[in-house]
User: What shape does this take?
Amino acid sequence: MKTADIPTFVSHLECSMTGARYEADRVHGLSEVGRPLLVRYDLAALGQAVTKEALAARAGGFWRYREFLPARRSENAVDLGEVTTPLVSLPRLGARLGLAGGEAIVKDEGRLPTGSFKARGLALAVAMAKELGLSHLAMPTAGNAGAALAAYATRAGLRSTVFCPDDAPEVNISEIELQGATVYRVNGLINDCGKIVGDGKATAGWFDVSTLKEPYRIEGKKTMGLELAEQMGWRVPDVIFYPTGGGTGLIGMWKAFAELEAIGWLTGKKPRMVAVQATGCAPIVKAYEEGAEHAPLWENAHTIASGMRVPIAVGDFLILRAVRDSGGFAIAVPDEEILAAREEVARAEGLLLCPEGAATVAAYKRALADGRVGTDEQVVLYNCATGLKYPLPKVTRRLDKNGPIDYAAL
Ligand SMILES: Cc1ncc(COP(=O)(O)O)c(C=O)c1O
Assistant: This one.
């Protein structure tokens, strides 16, 4: 196992709650106290092994950050043609919002394989599962994570089984199955699906790759932070708005910034991290406002932004810590504002966001209005998936080719 053709600097794994150490190169789920395990690196050695210049010469994709990642053997590093996702500025929206020196930028994760940022976490989780000899992976999903698991597991020659709420976007359910997984619709929410995965482990023999219940999806999500910092010239924006469900992306980016700071690649202030949720499912926002460390189950969770419909998160305290340590905040927006923001950005900028991405725009507008974000600040809004997978407004306008066409009225 230790023979490596990728230089890795993993020293051990650590319980995010108690700090207890766990050995690397072993199959791990949650820690003994039922909390996420975080991968720790010999950062001094990592910092010696790679330079910004060497990195700049590499091709795009997640594995260009290989020193910051846990995989040891390149044969396990499956890829599906990952790209560096673009930063798309929103100048018209900015002008409308009265920005003075500030900028609103979308990081468009919809350009990744399977159309979402879930590719980042699952590429890593699948690579590590392969490296550690696992053969059957299972997960609950709102849709996008299942699609990424299916694609990367199939690519790696592993079996995958996926459970999603029965109202998950149809296209997700179909693509999961087509990309080689077995998918089940469940008459419940994502936490009900998660219970099925957990309860079935012993009998079905699958490995649970639920958000933060294995240590490597977050390492993949870390590439969002590494990539953003590199793209911006090894600096970071003032504020990051992140649509928060299980929170892996937010926690992963915060971990990335800390590691970059430790090796001296990031200096100065880190961004304020803003967790965005929908008012119909806002456990993190409630806990943030109450000053709590944990976020209990949110009853009757509902929102059109299905990726954020996560009533309870195993990494709740990690999300809240990142938000508070960064000087950020958590904010909820109603579905009507999410839909209005999607339409506004699409019509003004020609950029179609997913509802979760649109939620960050709605939250940004609120934060500008109440002064929590300044008009002079640079803000990055995460659009975590392509807008094309979600139900879109119907267009009813028609023309009869056989009748007279009133061109003056068109
Ligand atoms: C499009 C989209 N945005 C945001 C999220 C929430 O991501 P996280 O679990 O990292 O908080 C999801 C998760 O399913 C998603 O699919």
Summary: Residues 116, 142, 144-145, 211, 243-249, 307-308, 354, 356, 384-385 surround pyridoxal-5'-phosphate (CB under 6 Å).
